[in-house]
Design a protein that fits this description.
The protein is mainly beta. It has 1 helix and 8 strands; from the N terminus they run αββββββββ. It is globular, with a radius of gyration of 15 Å.
Length: 142
């Protein structure tokens, strides 16, 4: 029964998603995800899963678009099987909360967007700590 629910959730997510993304950087190395419009032109949700040299995991972000700019701000949570990819190395953990400060790069590509993000991160498990990471990604969709 769990497999049926998982397949149904993935199919529904693909049908509702606005954009598909691939990024390199924090928290897990290489991430793939989907963005969903929650409030048009203002608020988006993002789910992602990732794999890296030390960790496998996923997370969720809530992203607020700054009107009349290419900037967006967000807050999210993540959890993985190993330490996340952030600095400083000794403060890394498997799960926690992260802020997102991102911007879209203005490239003349139809339906393709490139973005850069900075992630201040509060690790909650297995130890409490603070780190900072970043990511560069490509997004395809409307």
């Amino acid at each position: 029964m769990r497999k049926v629910w998982a397949v149904l959730a993935v199919a529904l997510a693909l049908g509702l998603a606005q954009r598909a993304e691939v990024s390199v950087g924090s928290p897990f190395g290489v991430q793939g995800g989907l963005r969903f419009p929650l409030v048009p032109l203002l608020l988006e949700g993002r789910v992602y899963g990732g794999v890296g040299l030390e960790a496998l995991g996923g997370g969720v972000d809530l992203l607020l678009k700054v009107p009349l700019t290419d900037l967006y701000l967000g807050l999210g949570g993540f959890y993985g099987t190993g330490p996340a990819l952030t600095l400083p190395q000794d403060a890394r953990g498997q799960g926690g909360l992260r802020g997102v400060l991102g911007t879209w790069l203005n490239l003349p590509l139809p339906l393709v967007g490139v973005y850069v993000e900075v992630h201040p991160t509060l690790f909650l498990t297995p130890n409490t700590g603070f780190g900072i990471g970043g990511a560069v990604g490509v997004s395809v969709g409307l």
